[in-house]
Amino acid sequence: MFGLALRSLRMRAGGFAASFLAMFLGAAILMAFASMLDTARAGKATGAARETLVTMAIVVGFWGLLLVILAVTSTLTLSVRQRAEEMALLKSVGATPAQIGRMVVGEAAGLAVAAWALAVLPGFLAGAGLLELLHSTDQVPESVSYAFGPVALAMGLAITLLSAVGAAVVTVRRTVRGRVAESLADAGVGRSRMGKARVAGGIVFLLLGLNLAVVTSTVMRNEGTDAMATAGQADILAALGLALLGPWLIRRTAGALARPLGAFGVAGDLAVSTLRRRTGQMASVVMPIILFTGIAVGTLYLQEIENDAMAAAGLVSTVEQKNIATLNFVVIGMLLFFTALMLVNTLIAATAYRRAEFGQQRLAGATPGQVLGAVTLEGVLLTGIGLACGTFAALFTVLPFGIARADTALPDLEPLTYVAVALIAVVLTMASALGAARRAVRVPAVEAVSI
Questions:
Q1: pLDDT reported for residue 435
Q2: pLDDT profile of the chain (451 residues), mean per 10
Q3: How far does Cα 224 stand from its chain's mean position?
Q4: Using CA atoms, how far apart are residues 296 and 307, in angstroms rounded to an integer?
Q5: 332 with 202, same domain?
Q6: CA distance 9 to 361
Q7: Distance separating the N- and C-terminal Cα atoms of the chain
Q8: Which of 88, 268, 342, 425 is 20 to 30 A (C-alpha) from 403?
Q9: Which of 251, 206, 205 minimizes the C-alpha distance to 382?
C-alpha cells in the first residue's frame, strides 16, 4: 500500500496541492520561530535577550502549531473526502479499511517529508529576518548571531509529520467506516453530521476562551500589561471553538435563510442545496475566515487598548512594552499571513473540485451565469458566517481587556480597523471562490462530468 501511496502522489499531484502548501508553509513558519531556540543556545544569549528569544519561540510557535494542525487537518480532510468514491470502489473490489488507511497515511507522510525538506530554506530565511527585527528594535543585541540548527529542523519535521499522519488517520477512519453501499452514497453527497469528538472539541475551546476572558476581567484587572497574556489567547481559543462547530453553524444558517435565498431563483436554490448537503466541505472554507477575523480584530484592538492605556497614564514606552508590542505584531502578522493563505488555498481547492458538480448542474439546465450566481451567494453566506463568528470570538479579548485596562467593556476604538479586516476577508473569499468557479465552468459540461 505504501508503493500505491507513492504512485498516487505522482499521478494526483494536483489533488494534493492544497495539503502540500499547508504543510510547506506550516513547516517554514514553525522552523523560523523554533530557530530562536537554536539562536538562544548557540548565540549565547543571556538575560532579557534570551527571555525574548525563548518567549518568541514558545508563544508564537505554540499558536502556530495549533493553526498548522488545523490547516493540515482541514485540507487533508477535504482531499480525502473528495476521494470518497474512489475509496468506496476500492472497498468494493476487496481492499480492507486497514489497507486503505495505510495508503492514505503513506500519502500524507510522503507529502509531509517533501514539504518539510522544501521548507528548510524559507524557514532559515524567515528566522534570520525575525532575528534582524529583534536586533533593529534593540530587544536582542547585535552580538547574538543567528543559528538554525537541530531544534528547528527536528521540530519542523516532527510537527509537520505528526500533524499530517494524525489528520490522515482521523479522516480516513471516518471515510472508510461502514458498508460499501453506504460509502458510495456518502461519497455522492458528503457527510453533514459532525462527530462527537468535533463537537466536544469546539465546546472545550469555547469554554477555555471564556475562562480566560473571565480571568482577564477579574483576576488580571489593574495588573497592567500582564493582562495581555490571558486576553491575547482568549479570542484564538474562541475562534478555534467556533471553527470546529462550523458544520452546525452552516446548516442552521442555510435553513434559516432558505426562503429569502429562494428569491434569487435557480442560483439561490442551488446555493441552499449545496450548503445543506456539503456542510463538511463548506465548514473547511468558513474555518479560515473565522480564524482570520477573530485573530486580526482581537489582537489589533488589544494593542490599541494597551497603547491608549499607556498614553492615558502618561507613560513613555519602555523596552519591555516595545517587546510586547513587537511580539503582538509578529504574532498577528504570522497568524494572519498563514490564515489568509489557508483561506485562499482551501477555497480554490474546494471550488476547483466541484467542476463535475457544476457540469451536472449545467446539463440539468442551469446556465453558467446561474452556477456562478450560486457560488457568489455561497461565498456571501460563508463570508457572513465567518465574519459574524470571528467578530464574536474577538469579543472574548476586546471586552475583558477593555475592563482590565480602560475600566470599560466598550473602549473607544478605531472602527476603520474592523472595516479593513472585514474587507480583506471579503475580497480574499470572493476573489478565490469566483476565480476558481469561472475556470471550472469554462470546461464544457460533458467534459467536466467525465473528469
A1: 87
A2: 57 66 87 90 82 80 74 74 69 74 81 92 92 83 90 90 82 62 49 74 94 93 84 90 90 84 82 81 84 90 87 67 69 75 79 79 85 88 92 95 90 91 91 86 78 56
A3: 31
A4: 17
A5: yes
A6: 30
A7: 25
A8: 425
A9: 251
Asked if 325 and 209 sit in the same domain, the reply is yes
- Quick one: cell of 93? 473490489
- Please tell me the distance from the alpha carbon of residue 124 to that of residue 122, in angstroms, as a whole number: 5
Q: Considering 161, 190, 219, which residue would you say is the last residue of a domain?
A: 190
Dump the DSSP string for 114-127. HHHHHHHHHHHHHH
* Strand segments (E) across 349-419: none
Last residue of a domain, one of 156, 173, 190: 190
d(CA 186, CA 81): 9
Q: Dihedral of the CA atoms 360, 362, 366, 370 (nearest 10)?
A: 100
Q: How far is 17 from 350, CA to CA, in rounded Å?
A: 12
Whether residue 354 sits in one domain with residue 224: yes
Identify the domain containing residue 208 by its residue range. Answer: 192-451
The DSSP secondary-structure symbol of 443 reads S
- Pair 310, 356 in one domain: yes
User: Nearest-5° angle of CA 24, CA 29, CA 30?
Assistant: 100
Q: Provide the 3-class DSSP secondary structure of residue 341.
A: helix
| pLDDT (0 to 100) of residue 344 | 82
Beta carbons of 126 and 71 less than 8 angstroms apart: no
Position 73 scores a pLDDT of 76
Residues 152 and 75 placed together within one structural domain of the fold: yes
Residues 284, 77 contacting (CB under 8 angstroms):
yes
Q: Are 48 and 185 part of one and the same domain?
A: yes
Domain identity same for 8 and 91: yes
Residue 312 cell numbers, joined: 492615558
Question: Is the distance from CB of 360 to CB of 449 less than 8 angstroms?
Answer: yes
Would you state the cell numbers that stand for residue 136, as one nine-digit string? 533593529
> Are 91 and 223 within one domain?
no
**pTM score, whole prediction:** 0.79
Number of domains in the chain: 2
Given a contact cutoff of 8 angstroms between Cβ atoms, the answer to whether 372 and 440 are in contact is: no
In terms of Cα–Cα distance, which of 385, 70, 66 is closest to 248?
Answer: 385
